[in-house]
Each structure stands twice: as structure tokens, then as C-alpha cells.
From TrEMBL:
Entry protein name: GMP synthase (glutamine-hydrolyzing)
Keywords: ATP-binding, Glutamine amidotransferase, GMP biosynthesis, Ligase, Nucleotide-binding, Purine biosynthesis
SUPFAM superfamilies: Adenine nucleotide alpha hydrolases-like (SSF52402), Class I glutamine amidotransferase-like (SSF52317), GMP synthetase C-terminal dimerisation domain (SSF54810)
Purpose of the protein: Catalyzes the synthesis of GMP from XMP.
């Protein structure tokens, strides 16, 4: 890596990610490392211009206060103690904090603001080529932001040495499988294996109402399909994955308990024996999107809304039926189209429709009709831990209701979910 870097050593702070993001916002690359890194390991990191010892309330492990090796205090680059042993150099106010951080990064460390996507992409292309050589890479391409950006980066680096497998399980939003084929096979000339597994998945899910059981079935079946396709290919030695930096941070360090464990295409049989290629593993989500833009991916893919792994399977509430699943897909498409048309596409963090397995009486063509109801959910959040409901104009809701009840077969009511998180969750299942 050719960029200058500021290293953050984790001494129990809960703000490691925030600090790393603030440094990167200044145009300087930053990474978080554990407190027990050795001086030799620190010296082996490329382009280090300064070190921040980032302390906090968790700096006691097993009853012992942790610290870095004494050698690191005498490191050749500047070392700053941040919120460690009572020293708090970072003010709470954002403007003052930015000034203090800028003074350290540029004034004290002499770092250059050379962290940008063009340099990142050039570095990763070089690193991927060094790692892979003339071997082949396999990638599960879901169409989500992370896998799509990994695919575009690998295509740039190794071209036809990459094979992408897109499994259509029938639970994607309207137009998404077609978009994957159009962008990667037609426009980027990638080796793309398209697997139509819709019937296979929906048959497996028939009669299954429990949300957790649905999730497990979908995940397990995906792995089986992907494994079958992998065994058809010869000479694959590497598996591409869309691991990103929050995945690594949330998986925990020696001083912070894991928020959750992360794995992308986890659970593959050991005899497939792939080495991992994870070119995005040091990027935050907004940086992944910036990388996708720089690689020429369409906005609809780069700014794709958060979407649960089981897809529409957890928005077709209860046991999935094909007709109700199609109603979810069509109503969701109408909602997304109207939000985009009315300036809400980039304003609202997440919006979707869900359909419970209940019917109510209504009137259709002057006759009694027992049909489903569509629930609209539109929320804003910073960290997905809490969420507020978007104040969607009533006239727009009336218009969307009119379209859904007129255009979506089997639906006679539209409801708007007013519940924040907590007490509700973002998804219904």
C-alpha cells in the first residue's frame, strides 16, 4: 500500500471505528490493531506515520489493566495517548475534535492526504494479482453491494480468471436477478454462472412458517447449490468474499466483546479447500459504495438498500406461498418506484412492504373479496440499533395505496407501520 497510515491500537475504547473513520475523512488511511501488537509487527505495517493508543472503559482484561509493549512508546513515529489513564486529548465537540485530530495527523505526524479510492483500487488490483497469480477465483454474487463491488474489483484485476455464481432463489426484489446478468455478463463480460433455483427453494420452504427455520433452510440450501456449482468447475483455488471492515470490528478484539460473528459464504465443505480473497476487508460501508462508483457500477447497485439475507422470504410473513410472494415483490416495486419519483429514495434509510398470512373482506368489481393486506415500512436509522419512522406525506400514501390495490393481484388493503425501534424491529420477521 502506497498511502500513509495512522495506526490505532485498541486499549478498550468503544470509539475505535469512529476514530478510524475520522482519520480517513481527513484523507489519511487508518487501521485498528490489538493492543498486544509487537514492535516488529508494527514496523512491518506499510506507511505508518503515527500511532494512537486509544483507551477506554474496557482496558481491564481478567482483572489486569492492559497496555502496549513499552517498546511501542519509543516507536520511531509519533505516539499519542488518547483517553488513556486519564489523558483525554479529544474534545467532545466535533469541530474541536477534528481540529485536534488534524493537528496530530498532519502537524505532528506529517502524513499526506493520499487516501482515496483511485489509490485504493490500484493497490488492491496489484495485491490481488500477487495473491492469485494465474489461478482461478470463485465468487458467490448475490447482487448486494459488497459482493457486486468485490466482483467488479476482481474483474478489473484478473478478468476471466474469476467465475461468478449467481443463485436466483426466487426471494430477490423485482428486476434484481436480471440486473446482475445485465451488468456483469453483458456489460462487464464476466464469467457468470446463473442458477435458476427458484422452484428448488420454494419447494423446500413450502409450509414453513417459523422465521428462524426459514432463515436456516434458505442459508443451508444456498450453500448446497453453491457447492454443487463449485464442484462443476475445474482449477478453482480461491474464494472471493465480500467481508468489510465492520464485519471484522464487530467480530471483536481482545478488549471488546464480539457484537456478532460474521461469515459470508460460510459452511462450505472443507474438501473444497479454497483460500480467501477479501479485497474490501479494510473498507467501511460508505467506502465500499465509493469504490463501487469508482469502478463504474450503476447507482441502483451501489446504493442498493439494506436487504436481509433471506430476502423477501422474511417479508412474506408466515408460510411462503408463490402468489403472496409475488404480491410482496410487486408491491415493493411500486413503493420503491414512488419513493424514487417523490424524492424519498436517498432520504429514507430503508423502506419495503410485507404481507402477513391473513385476509380481510373487501370489495372487488362490486363483489365481496377476501384478500391480503400490504404493510408499508419506512424507517431511518444511524446504527440499526434504534430507528424512527419516516413522516411520509399522506397524499403520497394515498397514491401508493391506490396503485397497490389496483395493480397487485390479491391485495385489498394497505397499512402503514408507525412503530419505531424499539418497540418494533426494522423487519417484521
Amino acid at each position: 500500500m502506497k498511502q500513509d497510515m495512522i495506526v490505532i491500537l485498541d486499549l478498550g475504547s468503544e470509539e475505535n471505528a469512529r476514530l478510524a473513520r475520522e482519520i480517513r475523512a481527513l484523507g489519511v488511511y487508518s487501521e485498528i490493531h490489538p493492543h498486544d501488537i509487537t514492535l516488529e509487527e508494527l514496523k512491518a505495517l506499510p506507511g505508518v506515520k503515527g500511532v494512537i493508543l486509544n483507551g477506554g472503559p474496557n482496558r481491564v482484561v481478567d482483572g489486569v489493566e492492559i497496555d502496549v509493549s513499552r517498546d511501542i512508546y519509543n516507536y520511531e513515529a509519533p505516539v499519542l495517548l488518547a483517553d488513556h489513564k486519564g489523558d483525554k486529548p479529544w474534545p467532545a465537540d466535533d469541530a474541536e475534535r477534528k481540529t485536534a485530530l488534524s493537528n496530530f495527523v498532519f502537524g505532528v505526524c506529517g502524513a499526506e492526504a493520499n487516501w482515496n479510492m483511485d489509490n485504493f483500487i490500484a493497490d488492491q488490483v496489484e495485491l490481488i494479482r500477487q495473491q492469485v497469480g494465474d489461478k482461478k477465483v470463485l465468487l458467490a454474487l448475490s447482487g448486494g453491494v459488497d459482493s457486486s463491488v468485490v466482483a467488479a474489483l476482481l474483474i478489473k484485476a484478473i478478468g476471466k480468471q474469476l467465475t461468478c455464481v449467481h443463485v436466483n432463489h426466487g426471494l430477490l426484489r423485482k428486476g434484481e436477478p436480471e440486473q446482475v446478468v445485465k451488468v456483469f455478463r453483458d456489460e462487464m463480460d464476466a464469467n457468470l454462472v446463473y442458477v435458476d433455483a427458484v422452484d428448488r427453494f420454494l419447494d423446500k420452504l413450502s409450509g414453513v412458517a417459523d422465521p428462524e427455520q426459514k432463515r436456516k433452510l434458505i442459508g443451508a440450501e444456498f450453500i448446497r447449490v453453491f457447492e454443487e456449482e463449485a464442484r462443476k468447475l475445474c482449477g478453482i483455488q480461491f474464494l472471493g468474499q465480500g467481508t468489510i471492515y465492520p464485519d471484522i470490528i464487530e467480530s471483536g478484539t481482545k478488549t471488546v466483546k464480539a457484537v456478532k460473528s460474521h461469515h459470508n459464504v460460510g459452511g462450505l465443505p472443507e474438501d473444497l479447500d479454497f483460500a480467501l480473497v477479501e479485497p474490501l476487508k479494510m473498507l467501511f460501508k460508505d467506502e465500499v459504495r465509493a469504490c463501487g462508483k469508482a469502478l463504474g457500477l450503476p447507482d441502483a447497485m451501489v446504493y442498493r438498500q439494506p436487504f436481509p439475507g433471506p430476502g423477501l422470504g422474511v417479508r412474506c410473513l408466515g408460510a411462503i406461498t408463490r402468489d403472496r410472494l409475488e404480491a410482496v415483490r410487486e408491491s415493493d416495486a411500486i413503493l420503491r418506484e414512488e419513493f424514487a419519483r417523490n424524492g424519498l429514495e436517498g432520504k429514507v434509510w430503508q423502506y419495503f412492504t410485507a404481507i402477513p398470512d391473513i385476509k380481510s373482506v373487501g370489495v372487488r368489481d362490486n363483489r365481496r373479496a377476501d384478500e391480503w393486506c400490504v404493510i408499508i415500512r419506512a424507517v431511518n436509522t444511524v446504527d440499526a440499533m434504534t430507528a424512527t419512522v419516516e413522516n411520509v406525506p399522506f397524499e403520497l400514501l394515498q397514491h401508493i395505496t391506490g396503485r397497490i390495490t389496483a395493480e397487485v393481484k390479491g391485495v385489498n388493503r394497505v397499512l402503514f407501520d408507525l412503530t419505531p425501534k424499539p418497540t418494533g424491529t426494522i423487519e417484521w420477521e
